[in-house]
Design a protein that fits this description.
The protein is α+β, with helices and mostly antiparallel strands and 510 residues long. It contains 16 helices and 20 strands. The structure holds flavin-adenine dinucleotide.
Length: 510
């Protein structure tokens, strides 16, 4: 993938494409892969970097969603489990199986969770990973050595999938490109082109050169996550909002706070949410929260109360309890939850995670909601729909078995960029040469996950990486200054907010 080559392919304003996909997160990239694979002439435009919004800030699970069983959304769980099975097969090396322990602190919990997880296994059918099992007290502690032992009866062990969200996004962008789509980042759609009341294209701006790009197509797909309503309003300024953003944050801590290879899943916290503590790239990922009523923005910031909530709740289940100063990084993302018409006043944690596909009077197609896990099904539904709306020849979907381009991260060996970061200089070079990375933040946040793993290490290595990238891109020293300033400013929101709970501050002081 090469950005200027992609932009060149968009230079003829009179050319008519089959489809323009607006948005390069999980949803838009999935649609571009499916569309190009079916042979439709496809363009994807992303205003920032691929997956820069919600799709790089997930819990990094490809899962059925155990908690949706509790809310009776069996159909959603079954669909997610089916997609989980396909992704484990089609994106090997990026999506991997992971074992989870549900600790039991009440005598009936092993039975209760065992039943629930067995139903989960049954819903997965042939695409299951490994069977759920019961763990004794000793086996539970062996799987998660830092788990609080007082009052522990045992545990339930089940399996789900884990992935690197931004790496999967890049694998999808590369696959779409290989299948013939033009995918390009840092091109923002500002308005829609209408002909006789029908949406027939977009007016966009290359955010790097400032140049305007006009493109025509049979159909336009809005796959912009929490920005969905802004694109719908380009079509019809009077349209009612359909998205309720909900913020979720994660903390990244040292792996010793888990101590083993298995994750912990706490099915029911104070506010009825699920809490995950997951091993990820030799660190522990702790999440998440569900904070409604937040503004739509590309880079949301964790709130102090969210950090306090996670630290406090993790402490209830761990022997060595983490404190605020143990946090290596923290990041926030916004769920694009779809409001049913009658939902006014519903808490965001109660809104469904299933997706919604709508077609406006002008033919603008909007795909919103859903989960990373279900992106392929969302794409299949969208492409079936736009082929009909755009009067395109019907072609069957075959992404069920389509292997996504692999993940070669770290494979090549070579010198590490920093002792605390699992990346080599080869990873940096590849990101610039073939993964359309054009900023320091692209490289340190998404092509590598340095900023999410360890803010301090990412800041330390930033000047060296900036110098290398500058040379690769043929830029000058001003570029380095601008990139470093922007990156250091952005990195501030990955440091945990400074408040500490009174009791923690007290115990640290004593
Ligand atoms: C905290 C949290 C944890 C989660 N954990 C999981 C999980 O473990 N597993 C799971 O399956 N799902 C998870 N999800 C859900 C999943 O991350 C989202 O459903 C998914 O990433 C949404 O993808 P999207 O492409 O719809 O939106 P986005 O990722 O937001 O992509 C939309 C893109 O559109 C672009 N855009 C907007 N306007 C324009 C414009 N005018 N022109 C061009 N581009 C534009 C944006 O820049 C953005 O990149 C989680 C979500 C959150 C918030």
């Amino acid at each position: 993938m090469n950005r200027s080559a992609s932009l060149d392919r968009l230079s003829d304003a009179s050319e008519e494409w089959d489809v323009i996909v607006v948005g390069g997160g999980a949803t838009g990239l999935g649609i571009a892969v499916d569309s190009a694979n079916r042979g439709y002439r496809t363009v994807l435009l992303e205003q920032a970097d691929f997956s820069e919004s919600t799709s790089s800030k997930s819990t990094k699970l490809i899962h059925g969603g155990v908690r949706y069983l509790r809310s009776g959304e069996v159909g959603l769980v079954r669909e997610s489990l089916r997609e989980r099975g396909r992704l484990l097969r089609n994106a090997r090396g990026i999506v991997e199986p992971l074992s989870f322990v549900v600790p039991a602190y009440r005598f009936y919990e092993p039975f209760f969770y065992g039943m629930g997880m067995t139903l989960y296994d049954l819903l997965a059918g042939d695409l299951g990973i490994q069977s759920t099992g019961h763990l004794s007290h000793r086996e539970t502690v062996k799987a998660v050595p830092n788990l609080k032992e007082t009052g522990l009866y045992g545990g339930t062990l089940y399996w789900d999938g884990q992935f690197d969200d931004s790496r999967l996004a890049i694998a999808m962008a590369r696959t779409a490109h290989l299948e013939g789509a033009v995918v390009v980042n840092r091109v923002k759609v500002h308005s829609l082109i209408k002909e006789s009341g029908k949406t027939r294209g977009v007016v966009a701006v290359d955010e790097q050169s400032g140049e305007e790009i006009r493109l025509k197509a049979r159909v336009v797909v809005n796959a912009t996550g929490v920005f969905t309503d802004s694109v719908r309003k380009m079509d019809d300024p009077q349209v009612r909002d359909m998205i309720a953003p909900s913020q979720g944050i994660h903390l990244v801590l040292d792996q010793k706070f888990l101590g083993g290879e298995s994750a912990i899943m706490i099915p029911n916290t104070d506010d009825g949410r699920v809490l995950f503590a997951i091993p990820w790239k030799n660190k522990m990922l702790l999440g998440t929260t569900d904070t409604g009523g937040v503004p739509v923005e590309l880079s949301p910031k964790p709130f102090e109360e969210e950090v306090d909530y996670l630290i406090e709740h993790a402490g209830r289940y761990l022997t060595e309890k983490p404190c605020h100063h143990d946090i290596r990084s923290t990041f926030a993302g916004l769920r694009p939850l779809v409001l049913p018409d009658e939902s006014a006043g519903k808490a965001t944690s109660k809104l469904s995670r299933s997706h919604s596909l709508t077609v406006s009077d002008s033919g603008l197609i909007t795909m919103a909601g859903g989960k990373w896990t279900t992106y392929r099904q969302m794409a299949e539904d969208t492409v079936d729909c736009f082929a009909e709306v755009g009067g395109l020849a019907t072609k069957p979907c075959s992404t069920h078995d389509l292997t996504l381009l692999g993940n070669e991260e770290g494979e090549s060996g070579g010198e590490q960029i920093h002792p605390s970061l699992p990346y080599t200089w080869h990873d940096i070079e590849r990101a610039v040469k073939s993964e359309m990375a054009t900023t320091l933040d692209d490289i340190l946040s998404r092509r590598t996950r340095s900023l999410l793993l360890d803010v301090e290490a990412a800041r330390e290595v930033a000047p060296k990486v900036a110098r290398r990238v500058c040379d690769l891109l043929g830029e000058d020293d001003h570029w380095i200054d601008r990139q470093l300033n922007a990156f250091l400013k952005n990195s501030e929101s990955y440091s945990a907010p400074t408040s500490q709970s009174a009791s923690e501050a007290e115990s640290e002081g004593s």
